[in-house]
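## tool: complex_structure
## caller: assistant
## args:
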Amino acid sequence: MDWMIILPIIVYIFILVGIGAYSYKFTGTREGFHLGGRKIGSWVTAISYAFSGMSAFVLIGFVGMVYTLGPSSFYTLIGYNIGFAFSYIVIAKRLRNYSEILDAYTYTDYFVKRVRGNPHMIRAISAISILVFMSVYVGSQLAAGGMTIETVFDINPTTSVIIAGIVVTAYCLFGGFAGVSITDYFQGIIVVIGTAILGVFMINYAGGWSAVVEEVRNQDPALVTGGLGASGSALLGLIFGYLTLGVAIIGRPHDTIRFFAISSSSEVRKSFAITLTALTITYWGAFLVGYAGRVIYPNIDNPEYIFPFALVDLTHPIFGGFMIAVFLGLLMSTSDSQLLSSGSTFGEDVYRKYINMHASDRQILIVTRLFIAIVGILSTVVAVTSSESIFWITVYASAGLAATFAPVLVFSLYWDKLTNAGAVAGMLTGFMTVVLWDNFMPEFSFIMTEAVPAVVLSSVVIYVVSKLTEQPELQTVRNELQQVKKVWKK
Amino acid sequence: MLGWTFTAWLVVVIIPAMITGFSIIYYMMGEKKQGEEDEA
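## result:
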């Protein structure tokens, strides 16, 4: 154990706790706790949106993919960037405005108020989907955190994951949304710069760009091409398969909720540009880490360990410690957003609506925090027991969330005839398709993500069922849809 | 070119840069439109 590495990590955790304590003052009200009072600016929205989505995926999962696939791994990220562009252009502004018109604090609350009618089924499906997929998702972050802690502190993997689980859950219990957003911002900026520095450093360490390319070519000539050496329909299949992963990032509750809180819908475009710029720089840095990793660690058992290994073995201990702190921060930014959206779902949508209808705001906050702790424990169990790679766990959890929520979200922002029955049927179809697809047709998961058939089927079901039923407040919905197109400022 | 095929450069550098470039142009067009609306 090297104290030169550990010291920066401890200092960093103190800074995070300080930010959590500072933002505690925002959390006295429900709107404050859940949405930071809808006063979050474009920079904070952009960076926190980007990194609450990308998390461990970039530095652990994606680095491992680069090691295995070379440049072809980038198809995934192109798919993701298209998914982000869709989210910003099609969803963000309208959702920001509509959530305020409907006075909705949580994702589920938005759907219930938007479609009118009986809310029970929507609440039930949302709560189940969020509980199931979010526990898996947070589990993947904790597993990645465990890998890092294991490498640095040289303690066993299970203890490492449990430590990660305790730190993340405890942090989220304090800060609420403002805490989450501010720390995401702060960490996101460090991640962009730190990853780029590490990537360039590793390429130099491995002998420079030309030497790295030459060595990779010697290992496998397909890894210096953009298609794994494939051509024709095999290449098209590969491209299609990875591009479709972008579908799985649309409409996920933990990052889409950022759009509720942005201070003005005029900030949306700026936020879009910042998100994509920051992410692209980070992807490039992570790519260099994985590519140089192939030369530096040619026989590594699990390439998802390259990032922590490189920091411990190759860099100056203070830089290594700082970067590990950055990485743990990145994990926290995803995990805490996800824990928060689970907690909000239970506190607002289940406890307030079914268990104690006269609950005070304070009681609800207590229940929300209690539920955050429960999901934190569940996720730790998932992380300790799972044997899948971080990359594929993340993809699966994302697909489940996107399939449940994305189609109905888009219909709700553009189509006045969407009905309660249509929304319920669509969400159920999306959720069930992901679960069944993965269990009964596992071979197809490698052709394209489960999210694609799930989103298509769900959209068809939403349209058909809504056509067969009737929206009881059609005129009101039409007026609201006119309103959401405008620019709103808080 | 620098040891890589054109498709590798296309996938890793050119397309991601173009998508990011698009987001920046989209933002700047919005700023202009916003300015015109404010003046009106």
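## assistant note: The helical segments of chain B are 6-39. The radius of gyration of chain B is 17 Å. Handing back to user.
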